Amino acid sequence: MPNELTNLSSLKSLDFSGSLNLISLPNELINLSSLITLYLSGSSSLTSLPNELANLSSLTTIYLSGWSSMTSLVNELSNFSSLITLNLSGCSILITLPNELINLSSLRRLNLSECSSLMSLPNELANLSSLIRLYLSDSSA
Known about the structure:
The chain is mainly β. Helix content is 6%, strand content 13%. The chain has one domain: Ribonuclease Inhibitor (Leucine-rich repeat, LRR (right-handed beta-alpha superhelix), Alpha-Beta Horseshoe).
């Protein structure tokens, strides 16, 4: 990603969907203070998210559909307390969701469609009082 993008402080949406060669996101993304939506769907080489992204209070939507490296990332996502929408659809390698997802107190929409390896949902999911939409079509859970 060109470093010049990090100077776009008014940027609301950033789309890296299908970026197969994207290995990491620069920590400088935290300079995108107005970022609301981050699309990373199909960016299968990306294995982690910068922890600093969790400090972006404006970041409310993350699309991670189709990730093959999702097993390690779900734990990191529990730090994103401002998330309203989390799309993990098509993450066929995702087996479990961590109990720490209850830290996503603002989460309203969770998409787990086509997560064919997902064995069960944590009981703690019931504690997400803001959750109004849970998508589970074609999932094993």
